[in-house]
Specification:
Shape: globular
CATH architecture of one domain: 3-Layer(aba) Sandwich
Number of helices: 17
CATH class of one domain: Alpha Beta
Largest sheet: 9 strands, mixed
Length: 579
């Protein structure tokens, strides 16, 4: 579930402010957003809720709200509300991307985005103890290292009742916001953990839901991470089999299984040590790749089709003794995974998942897998003495509903496999489940991927799956396997690097990118995510740790850098002008 979407995407323009119901009680005050990176016309505000919703006394949490108003003055009453993954990611951060892709919905509907309690700017329960350079190594070694995570627990619980950060509390908050803003029934959508939040909302507030869209389904009884090792192994085995059946991939990597075995043998017992550039300073620092660091990296590569397309090349190079590219990918994914609100992640998973795992079922669940019981051991240890409350077994029961539902799964999802969606849709009486061939935890960067946004839009507009045209889904294709990194790396001098530094802007969306020089490397920060760039010419770069189709090209005029273009497989180019 703990997933982080790397979204380098345009955010759309918006029109007039919504006419909010005057009679709504305690209506939050919304005003034009001033924060950078939000679309023109977006409205921002906060809404306070009690941390202890049952007692309705004591500490309050200010929830951050962003409303993207409908363009048409004849606004429909049913907003679009998005719940992010993680648990611990920002629903505003992720929801802005989906709002752009479903732009036609905003002609007559508002988009309501709320960072749920304990995430983003809604009292985010972040753990700096698990972040930064040491956090990356701790993640690779232990996923959630108990020392730092318990230190975070001890610090947070001095002010926060960590037992009050559950899916039920979070969705009740959002329902209160919906009502306070005077909206009617909502169109709920969620990705990964966000699907559990949507199902929880549907269970607790069925009268307030018009449609649900679930992408990468987490059933109420998932008991994460019990199935992680098995799902990851199935995704990896399927990917290797596909490479073996692909003439180009098999020709480039004819002994991929043997390469993988060699890599795992090499890092078992004694970690491989690789020098990388520090993301903050550019100075060299050492990353150690042990067996579970490699296993986790391979698992996260299979989260996206683009990462999966790179995996055979990384395994082949490491099998030949070059671990540098694999270490770069490991650092990239570890950096993303340690940037979310780990306190919220812990509160949710400890109470709603780990508490229900029975020791006697663990061995059968992990036997014969690359990850073995690593994740289960680590999360059980991290949950020791984490403050929770008994939520009862009723939270594990299937959600039964006749609300129209659209479910989307990837065929090779390493964390929320397609059988999850098959199981959940059985009790959603008006549900339909789509499985994307070769899809992963996400389908971004697949050829034809944008047809899914059209299907989702048509479903929400119609309010039913009856007659829904899904024929385009069969045309979605995975990216080609990466057989090399393309043009070789070049070394640039200080003057060549310095002229690239600056702020770059996309006027229509308000999106801003910052380019800095750290040491002798170029760093790009966009939408809150920072990556290092690898130069292949004075103006052309690829993104460290990512598939070579992810490129940055700087534009030059009369000797001056005037802009840049971000290229991603299967996505529109993002052209930005230097400010």
């Amino acid at each position: 579930m703990k997933s982080r979407f790397v979204l380098l995407a345009l955010l759309g323009c918006l029109g007039a402010a919504p006419a909010l119901a005057a009679e709504a009680p305690h209506r939050p005050e919304l005003s034009p957003c001033k924060e950078p990176g939000l679309p023109p016309g977006a409205l921002c505000g906060t809404y306070e809720v009690f941390e202890n919703r049952a007692a309705r006394t004591g500490r309050k949490i200010p929830l951050r709200i962003v409303v993207l108003p409908a363009r048409d003055s004849a606004r429909l009453p049913d907003p679009f509300i998005y719940f992010a993954g993680g648990p611990g990611d920002s629903s505003i951060h992720e929801g802005l991307f989906f709002a752009q892709q479903l732009a036609s919905l905003r002609q007559k509907r508002d988009v309501l985005l709320v960072d749920v309690r304990g995430t983003g700017d809604s009292g985010g329960l972040f753990c700096p103890e698990t972040q930064g350079r040491q956090g990356v190594q701790g993640f690779l070694d232990n996923f959630l290292p108990t020392g730092p995570i318990h230190a975070c627990r001890d610090r947070l619980k001095k002010e926060v009742d960590l037992s009050r950060y559950t899916s039920g509390d979070a969705t009740d908050d959002v329902e209160e916001v919906r009502a306070a803003l005077g909206y009617g029934k909502a169109n709920l959508a969620g990705g990964s953990y966000g699907t559990r939040a949507v199902l929880t909302y549907l269970r607790r507030h069925p009268q307030s839901v018009r449609t649900v869209t679930l992408m990468g389904v987490v059933p109420p009884d998932d008991r994460y991470p019990l199935g992680v090792a098995r799902s990851a192994q199935a995704a990896l085995d399927g990917l290797i089999a596909e490479c073996e059946g692909d003439a180009a991939c098999h020709g480039a990597f004819p002994q991929l299984r043997q390469d993988l075995d060699a890599v795992l043998r090499r890092v078992t017992g004694e970690p491989v040590r690789v020098d990388l550039a520090d993301m903050s300073t550019g100075e060299p620092f050492e990353v150690r790749l042990g067996r579970y660091g490699v296993a986790q990296t391979l698992r996260y590569l299979t989260y996206s089709p683009a990462g999966a397309s790179l995996l055979p090349l990384l395994v082949h190079q490491a099998g030949a003794g070059d671990f540098q590219p694999l270490a770069q990918a490991a650092r990239l994914y570890a950096s993303f995974m340690t940037s979310t609100a780990d306190g919220f992640y812990q509160s949710v998973t400890c109470a709603e998942d780990v508490a229900f795992i029975r020791p006697e079922e663990i061995q059968a669940a992990v036997a014969g897998t690359m990850l073995d019981d690593f994740r289960i051991r680590q999360q059980r240890a991290a949950c020791e003495e984490w403050p929770t409350r008994d939520l009862g077994k009723k939270i594990l029961e299937p959600v039964v509903s006749d609300v129209p539902a659209l479910l989307i799964s990837g065929e090779r999802d390493p964390v929320t496999p397609a059988q999850n969606g098959e199981r959940v849709v059985r009790t959603l009486k008006n549900g339909r489940h789509l499985i994307v061939a070769d899809g992963a935890h996400g389908t971004e960067w697949m050829q034809g991927n944008y047809c899914l946004f059209g299907v989702m839009t048509a479903f929400i507009e119609a309010g039913t799956t009856q007659g829904l045209d899904t024929s385009c889904v069969s045309g979605i294709r995975r990216p080609d396997f990466a057989l090399s990194f393309g043009d070789p790396e070049v070394t640039l001098g200080a003057a060549d690097l310095a002229r690239l530094a600056g702020t770059y802007h996309e006027a229509a969306s308000g999106l801003t990118a910052q380019v800095d020089v750290v040491g002798n490397r170029v760093r790009l920060t966009l939408d809150g995510d920072a990556v290092l760039l690898i130069a292949t010419s004075p103006t052309r770069f690829r993104v460290e740790g990512m598939e070579p189709g992810h490129r940055v090209v700087f534009q030059e005029s009369e000797g001056r850098i005037t802009g840049l273009t971000l290229f991603e497989p299967g996505s529109p180019d993002l052209v930005m002008t230097r400010k």
